Protein backbone atom coordinates (compact mmCIF):
# COMPACT_ATOMS: atom_id res chain seq x y z
CA UNK A 1 0.00 0.00 0.00
CA UNK A 2 2.80 2.38 0.93
CA UNK A 3 4.52 1.74 -2.40
CA UNK A 4 1.29 2.35 -4.27
CA UNK A 5 0.75 5.59 -2.39
CA UNK A 6 4.29 6.71 -3.29
CA UNK A 7 3.76 5.91 -6.98
CA UNK A 8 0.42 7.67 -6.84
CA UNK A 9 2.07 10.81 -5.37
CA UNK A 10 4.80 10.84 -8.03
CA UNK A 11 2.25 10.51 -10.83
CA UNK A 12 0.16 13.34 -9.37
CA UNK A 13 3.24 15.61 -9.23
CA UNK A 14 4.10 14.82 -12.84
CA UNK A 15 0.54 15.55 -13.90
CA UNK A 16 0.63 18.88 -12.07
CA UNK A 17 3.82 19.81 -13.93
CA UNK A 18 2.44 18.81 -17.32
CA UNK A 19 -1.10 20.18 -17.00
CA UNK A 20 -0.30 23.87 -17.73
CA UNK A 21 1.62 23.01 -20.90
CA UNK A 22 -0.94 20.42 -21.97
CA UNK A 23 -3.84 22.80 -21.49
CA UNK A 24 -1.92 25.46 -23.41
CA UNK A 25 -1.38 22.97 -26.22
CA UNK A 26 -5.04 22.08 -26.05
CA UNK A 27 -5.91 25.75 -26.58
CA UNK A 28 -3.48 25.85 -29.47
CA UNK A 29 -5.24 22.84 -30.91
CA UNK A 30 -8.57 24.62 -30.82
CA UNK A 31 -7.06 27.64 -32.58
CA UNK A 32 -5.09 25.59 -35.09
CA UNK A 33 -8.23 23.78 -36.22
CA UNK A 34 -9.22 27.08 -37.78
CA UNK A 35 -5.73 28.23 -38.81
CA UNK A 36 -5.70 26.68 -42.27
CA UNK A 37 -9.14 28.03 -43.03
CA UNK A 38 -8.15 31.44 -41.67
CA UNK A 39 -4.97 31.46 -43.71
CA UNK A 40 -6.75 30.61 -46.94
CA UNK A 41 -9.69 32.92 -46.37
CA UNK A 42 -7.56 35.89 -45.27
CA UNK A 43 -5.24 35.47 -48.23
CA UNK A 44 -8.18 35.28 -50.62
CA UNK A 45 -9.78 38.33 -49.01
CA UNK A 46 -6.56 40.33 -49.17
CA UNK A 47 -6.00 39.32 -52.78
CA UNK A 48 -9.55 40.41 -53.60
CA UNK A 49 -8.63 43.85 -52.28
CA UNK A 50 -5.04 44.15 -53.42
CA UNK A 51 -5.26 42.75 -56.94
CA UNK A 52 -7.91 45.21 -58.21
CA UNK A 53 -6.02 48.04 -56.50
CA UNK A 54 -2.77 47.02 -58.16
CA UNK A 55 -4.55 46.84 -61.52
CA UNK A 56 -6.07 50.29 -61.05
CA UNK A 57 -2.71 51.75 -60.01
CA UNK A 58 -1.05 50.20 -63.05
CA UNK A 59 -3.75 51.57 -65.32
CA UNK A 60 -3.51 54.98 -63.67
CA UNK A 61 0.26 55.12 -64.14
CA UNK A 62 -0.06 54.06 -67.78
CA UNK A 63 -2.75 56.65 -68.54
CA UNK A 64 -0.88 59.43 -66.79
CA UNK A 65 2.42 58.60 -68.47
CA UNK A 66 0.76 58.52 -71.89
CA UNK A 67 -0.93 61.83 -71.19
CA UNK A 68 2.30 63.28 -69.85
CA UNK A 69 4.17 62.24 -72.98
CA UNK A 70 1.61 63.65 -75.41
CA UNK A 71 1.30 66.91 -73.50
CA UNK A 72 5.07 67.30 -73.31
CA UNK A 73 5.20 67.01 -77.10
CA UNK A 74 2.39 69.50 -77.39
CA UNK A 75 4.18 71.91 -75.07
CA UNK A 76 7.34 71.62 -77.16
CA UNK A 77 5.29 72.40 -80.24
CA UNK A 78 3.73 75.41 -78.55
CA UNK A 79 7.13 76.77 -77.59
CA UNK A 80 8.18 76.55 -81.22
CA UNK A 81 4.96 78.31 -82.17
CA UNK A 82 5.91 81.18 -79.88
CA UNK A 83 9.17 81.63 -81.75
CA UNK A 84 7.37 81.48 -85.09
CA UNK A 85 4.59 83.77 -83.95
CA UNK A 86 6.75 86.85 -83.64
CA UNK A 87 7.87 86.37 -87.27
CA UNK A 88 4.29 86.68 -88.54
CA UNK A 89 3.97 90.44 -88.23
CA UNK A 90 2.91 90.88 -91.87
CA UNK A 91 0.56 87.91 -91.96
CA UNK A 92 -2.70 89.23 -93.37
CA UNK A 93 -4.56 86.25 -91.93
CA UNK A 94 -4.39 87.72 -88.40
CA UNK A 95 -7.80 89.30 -87.93
CA UNK A 96 -8.49 91.84 -85.20
CA UNK A 97 -10.84 90.37 -82.63
CA UNK A 98 -13.39 92.23 -80.58
CA UNK A 99 -10.74 92.42 -77.87
CA UNK A 100 -8.34 94.26 -80.19
CA UNK A 101 -11.09 96.59 -81.37
CA UNK A 102 -11.91 97.35 -77.76
CA UNK A 103 -8.24 98.12 -77.07
CA UNK A 104 -8.14 100.34 -80.16
CA UNK A 105 -11.04 102.42 -78.85
CA UNK A 106 -9.24 102.63 -75.52
CA UNK A 107 -5.99 103.79 -77.15
CA UNK A 108 -7.81 106.41 -79.21
CA UNK A 109 -9.15 107.88 -75.99
CA UNK A 110 -5.73 107.84 -74.33
CA UNK A 111 -3.89 109.44 -77.21
CA UNK A 112 -6.14 112.47 -77.01
CA UNK A 113 -4.38 113.35 -73.76
CA UNK A 114 -0.73 114.24 -74.38
CA UNK A 115 0.08 113.83 -70.67
CA UNK A 116 -0.77 110.14 -70.88
CA UNK A 117 1.20 109.38 -74.03
CA UNK A 118 4.37 108.61 -72.07
CA UNK A 119 2.68 105.76 -70.18
CA UNK A 120 0.46 104.80 -73.08
CA UNK A 121 2.20 101.54 -74.05
CA UNK A 122 2.54 100.38 -70.45
CA UNK A 123 -1.16 100.92 -69.76
CA UNK A 124 -2.22 99.00 -72.86
CA UNK A 125 0.18 96.12 -72.16
CA UNK A 126 -0.99 95.84 -68.55
CA UNK A 127 -4.60 95.75 -69.73
CA UNK A 128 -3.79 92.91 -72.15
CA UNK A 129 -2.04 91.00 -69.36
CA UNK A 130 -5.02 91.43 -67.04
CA UNK A 131 -7.30 89.93 -69.71
CA UNK A 132 -4.93 87.05 -70.56
CA UNK A 133 -5.66 84.83 -67.55
CA UNK A 134 -2.03 84.98 -66.44
CA UNK A 135 -1.32 85.90 -62.83
CA UNK A 136 0.99 88.74 -61.85
CA UNK A 137 3.89 87.52 -59.74
CA UNK A 138 3.34 83.92 -60.75
CA UNK A 139 3.30 84.11 -64.55
CA UNK A 140 4.72 87.59 -65.15
CA UNK A 141 6.51 90.41 -63.33
CA UNK A 142 5.93 94.14 -63.87
CA UNK A 143 8.83 96.61 -63.77
CA UNK A 144 11.23 93.94 -62.47
CA UNK A 145 9.52 94.05 -59.08
CA UNK A 146 11.62 92.60 -56.22
CA UNK A 147 14.29 91.32 -58.65
CA UNK A 148 16.70 94.26 -58.07
CA UNK A 149 18.06 94.06 -61.60
CA UNK A 150 21.12 96.15 -62.50
CA UNK A 151 23.19 96.70 -65.62
CA UNK A 152 26.96 96.38 -65.91
CA UNK A 153 27.38 99.85 -64.38
CA UNK A 154 25.11 98.94 -61.43
CA UNK A 155 22.30 101.13 -62.73
CA UNK A 156 18.81 99.81 -61.86
CA UNK A 157 16.91 98.10 -64.66
CA UNK A 158 13.14 97.77 -64.75
CA UNK A 159 11.84 95.90 -67.80
CA UNK A 160 8.16 96.66 -68.32
CA UNK A 161 7.15 92.99 -68.36
CA UNK A 162 9.02 89.76 -67.69
CA UNK A 163 6.97 86.78 -68.86
CA UNK A 164 7.68 83.49 -67.15
CA UNK A 165 7.64 80.29 -69.20
CA UNK A 166 7.77 76.73 -67.82
CA UNK A 167 11.32 75.46 -67.68
CA UNK A 168 12.50 78.61 -65.85
CA UNK A 169 12.57 80.65 -69.08
CA UNK A 170 11.72 84.33 -69.54
CA UNK A 171 10.50 86.65 -72.30
CA UNK A 172 11.07 90.38 -71.83
CA UNK A 173 8.64 92.94 -73.25
CA UNK A 174 9.32 96.66 -73.53
CA UNK A 175 6.43 99.05 -74.08
CA UNK A 176 8.02 102.51 -74.01
CA UNK A 177 8.08 103.29 -77.74
CA UNK A 178 6.64 106.75 -78.34
CA UNK A 179 3.59 107.23 -80.57
CA UNK A 180 3.46 111.01 -80.32
CA UNK A 181 4.54 111.58 -83.94
CA UNK A 182 2.22 108.81 -85.10
CA UNK A 183 -0.72 110.57 -83.42
CA UNK A 184 0.32 113.83 -85.08
CA UNK A 185 0.56 112.03 -88.42
CA UNK A 186 -2.85 110.46 -87.89
CA UNK A 187 -4.50 113.82 -87.12
CA UNK A 188 -2.80 115.83 -89.86
CA UNK A 189 -4.57 116.36 -93.20
CA UNK A 190 -1.82 118.21 -95.04
CA UNK A 191 0.25 115.77 -97.12
CA UNK A 192 3.61 117.52 -96.68
CA UNK A 193 3.12 117.92 -92.95
CA UNK A 194 2.09 114.26 -92.68
CA UNK A 195 5.42 113.28 -94.29
CA UNK A 196 7.30 115.30 -91.68
CA UNK A 197 5.42 113.56 -88.85
CA UNK A 198 6.04 110.19 -90.50
CA UNK A 199 9.81 110.81 -90.62
CA UNK A 200 9.76 111.82 -86.95
CA UNK A 201 7.80 108.71 -86.11
CA UNK A 202 10.23 106.40 -87.93
CA UNK A 203 13.16 108.21 -86.32
CA UNK A 204 11.65 107.75 -82.85
CA UNK A 205 11.16 104.01 -83.50
CA UNK A 206 14.78 103.59 -84.65
CA UNK A 207 16.06 105.59 -81.69
CA UNK A 208 14.11 103.38 -79.33
CA UNK A 209 15.54 100.26 -80.99
CA UNK A 210 19.03 101.62 -80.31
CA UNK A 211 18.21 102.53 -76.71
CA UNK A 212 16.63 99.16 -76.03
CA UNK A 213 19.56 97.34 -77.60
CA UNK A 214 22.01 99.09 -75.26
CA UNK A 215 20.08 97.95 -72.18
CA UNK A 216 20.63 94.24 -73.04
CA UNK A 217 17.86 93.01 -70.78
CA UNK A 218 18.32 89.51 -72.19
CA UNK A 219 21.84 89.34 -70.75
CA UNK A 220 20.66 89.68 -67.15
CA UNK A 221 22.30 86.92 -65.09
CA UNK A 222 19.21 86.72 -62.87
CA UNK A 223 17.05 85.88 -65.87
CA UNK A 224 17.04 82.99 -68.31
CA UNK A 225 15.72 85.07 -71.16
CA UNK A 226 15.30 84.25 -74.83
CA UNK A 227 17.92 85.88 -77.03
CA UNK A 228 15.60 88.72 -78.06
CA UNK A 229 13.46 91.40 -76.44
CA UNK A 230 9.95 92.18 -77.68
CA UNK A 231 9.34 95.86 -78.42
CA UNK A 232 5.60 96.35 -78.03
CA UNK A 233 3.96 98.90 -80.33
CA UNK A 234 0.45 99.42 -78.92
CA UNK A 235 -1.38 100.10 -82.19
CA UNK A 236 -1.47 97.75 -85.16
CA UNK A 237 -2.00 100.64 -87.59
CA UNK A 238 1.09 102.33 -86.12
CA UNK A 239 3.02 99.08 -86.59
CA UNK A 240 1.75 98.71 -90.17
CA UNK A 241 2.67 102.31 -90.97
CA UNK A 242 6.22 101.90 -89.64
CA UNK A 243 6.94 98.55 -91.33
CA UNK A 244 5.36 99.51 -94.66
CA UNK A 245 7.12 102.88 -94.72
CA UNK A 246 10.54 101.38 -93.95
CA UNK A 247 10.85 97.68 -94.94
CA UNK A 248 14.31 97.55 -93.33
CA UNK A 249 12.97 98.51 -89.91
CA UNK A 250 12.24 94.95 -88.81
CA UNK A 251 15.63 93.81 -90.09
CA UNK A 252 17.31 96.56 -88.07
CA UNK A 253 15.43 95.41 -84.99
CA UNK A 254 16.41 91.77 -85.54
CA UNK A 255 20.09 92.71 -85.86
CA UNK A 256 19.79 94.23 -82.39
CA UNK A 257 18.01 91.15 -80.95
CA UNK A 258 14.68 92.96 -80.86
CA UNK A 259 11.33 91.98 -82.31
CA UNK A 260 8.66 94.59 -82.93
CA UNK A 261 5.15 93.37 -82.11
CA UNK A 262 1.67 94.89 -82.03
CA UNK A 263 -1.22 94.06 -79.71
CA UNK A 264 -2.54 91.27 -81.94
CA UNK A 265 0.74 89.38 -81.67
CA UNK A 266 1.00 89.98 -77.93
CA UNK A 267 -2.53 88.68 -77.31
CA UNK A 268 -1.80 85.53 -79.34
CA UNK A 269 1.54 85.10 -77.55
CA UNK A 270 -0.07 85.38 -74.12
CA UNK A 271 -2.76 82.88 -75.08
CA UNK A 272 -0.06 80.38 -76.02
CA UNK A 273 1.84 80.98 -72.78
CA UNK A 274 -1.37 80.62 -70.78
CA UNK A 275 -2.01 77.29 -72.51
CA UNK A 276 1.55 76.13 -71.82
CA UNK A 277 1.15 76.95 -68.12
CA UNK A 278 -2.08 74.96 -68.01
CA UNK A 279 -0.31 71.97 -69.54
CA UNK A 280 2.54 72.40 -67.07
CA UNK A 281 0.11 72.35 -64.15
CA UNK A 282 -1.52 69.18 -65.52
CA UNK A 283 1.90 67.58 -65.89
CA UNK A 284 2.79 68.48 -62.30
CA UNK A 285 -0.49 66.97 -61.10
CA UNK A 286 0.20 63.86 -63.16
CA UNK A 287 3.66 63.46 -61.64
CA UNK A 288 2.15 63.93 -58.18
CA UNK A 289 -0.40 61.18 -58.91
CA UNK A 290 2.33 58.84 -60.13
CA UNK A 291 4.39 59.52 -57.02
CA UNK A 292 1.43 58.80 -54.73
CA UNK A 293 0.56 55.66 -56.70
CA UNK A 294 4.14 54.45 -56.29
CA UNK A 295 3.92 55.03 -52.53
CA UNK A 296 0.68 53.03 -52.33
CA UNK A 297 2.20 50.26 -54.44
CA UNK A 298 5.30 50.18 -52.23
CA UNK A 299 3.21 49.96 -49.05
CA UNK A 300 1.14 47.10 -50.49
CA UNK A 301 4.25 45.20 -51.50
CA UNK A 302 5.79 45.83 -48.08
CA UNK A 303 2.68 44.43 -46.43
CA UNK A 304 2.66 41.36 -48.65
CA UNK A 305 6.39 40.63 -48.37
CA UNK A 306 6.89 41.51 -44.72
CA UNK A 307 3.74 41.49 -42.64
CA UNK A 308 1.72 38.87 -44.48
CA UNK A 309 4.65 36.47 -44.72
CA UNK A 310 5.25 37.02 -41.00
CA UNK A 311 1.63 36.10 -40.32
CA UNK A 312 2.16 32.93 -42.36
CA UNK A 313 5.28 32.05 -40.40
CA UNK A 314 3.42 32.55 -37.12
CA UNK A 315 0.60 30.32 -38.32
CA UNK A 316 3.11 27.62 -39.27
CA UNK A 317 4.78 27.95 -35.86
CA UNK A 318 1.38 27.60 -34.22
CA UNK A 319 0.69 24.51 -36.30
CA UNK A 320 4.00 22.98 -35.19
CA UNK A 321 3.17 23.70 -31.54
CA UNK A 322 -0.17 22.01 -32.02
CA UNK A 323 1.44 18.89 -33.49
CA UNK A 324 3.96 18.76 -30.64
CA UNK A 325 1.19 19.14 -28.08
CA UNK A 326 -0.84 16.45 -29.78
CA UNK A 327 2.08 14.04 -29.60
CA UNK A 328 2.55 14.75 -25.91
CA UNK A 329 -1.14 14.33 -25.28
CA UNK A 330 -1.73 11.06 -27.14
CA UNK A 331 1.42 9.28 -28.33
CA UNK A 332 4.41 9.75 -26.02
CA UNK A 333 5.10 7.44 -23.08
CA UNK A 334 4.80 10.35 -20.65
CA UNK A 335 1.68 11.80 -22.26
CA UNK A 336 -1.21 12.86 -20.09
CA UNK A 337 -3.33 10.08 -21.61
CA UNK A 338 -0.90 7.36 -20.52
CA UNK A 339 -0.46 8.96 -17.12
CA UNK A 340 -4.22 9.01 -16.68
CA UNK A 341 -4.40 5.29 -17.52
CA UNK A 342 -1.62 4.52 -15.01
CA UNK A 343 -3.43 6.60 -12.40
CA UNK A 344 -6.64 4.68 -13.03
CA UNK A 345 -4.82 1.33 -12.76
CA UNK A 346 -3.20 2.35 -9.45
CA UNK A 347 -6.53 3.59 -8.19
CA UNK A 348 -8.25 0.33 -9.09
CA UNK A 349 -5.43 -1.65 -7.46
CA UNK A 350 -5.55 0.47 -4.31
CA UNK A 351 -9.31 0.16 -4.14
CA UNK A 352 -9.06 -3.62 -4.42
CA UNK A 353 -6.43 -3.81 -1.64
CA UNK A 354 -8.46 -1.55 0.65
CA UNK A 355 -11.58 -3.62 0.05
CA UNK A 356 -9.76 -6.86 0.84
CA UNK A 357 -8.27 -5.29 3.97
CA UNK A 358 -11.66 -4.12 5.21
CA UNK A 359 -13.14 -7.56 4.63
CA UNK A 360 -10.24 -9.13 6.56
CA UNK A 361 -10.72 -6.73 9.47
CA UNK A 362 -14.42 -7.50 9.70
CA UNK A 363 -13.70 -11.22 9.95
UniProtKB/TrEMBL annotation:
The record's section on Pfam families has:
RmuC (PF02646)
From the record, give the transmembrane residue ranges. none
For this UniProt record, give its keywords in alphabetical order, as a comma-separated list. Coiled coil, DNA recombination
Query: What's a BP term from Gene Ontology annotated to this protein?
Result: DNA recombination
Can the keyword Signal be found in this entry's annotation?
no
GTP-binding in keyword set: no
What protein am I looking at?
Answer: DNA recombination protein RmuC
Q: Provide the species name.
A: marine metagenome
Amino acid sequence: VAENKLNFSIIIDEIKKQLPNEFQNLANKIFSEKSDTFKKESKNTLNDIVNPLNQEIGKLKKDVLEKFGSESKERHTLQNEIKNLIKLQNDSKIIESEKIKEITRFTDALTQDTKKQGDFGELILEQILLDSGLIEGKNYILQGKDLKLKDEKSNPQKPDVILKIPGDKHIIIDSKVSLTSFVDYHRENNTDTKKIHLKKFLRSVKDHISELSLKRYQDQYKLNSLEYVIMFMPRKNAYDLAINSDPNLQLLAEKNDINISHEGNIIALLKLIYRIWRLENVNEDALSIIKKADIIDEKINTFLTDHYEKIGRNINSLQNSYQDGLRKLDTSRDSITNKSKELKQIGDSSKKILTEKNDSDEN
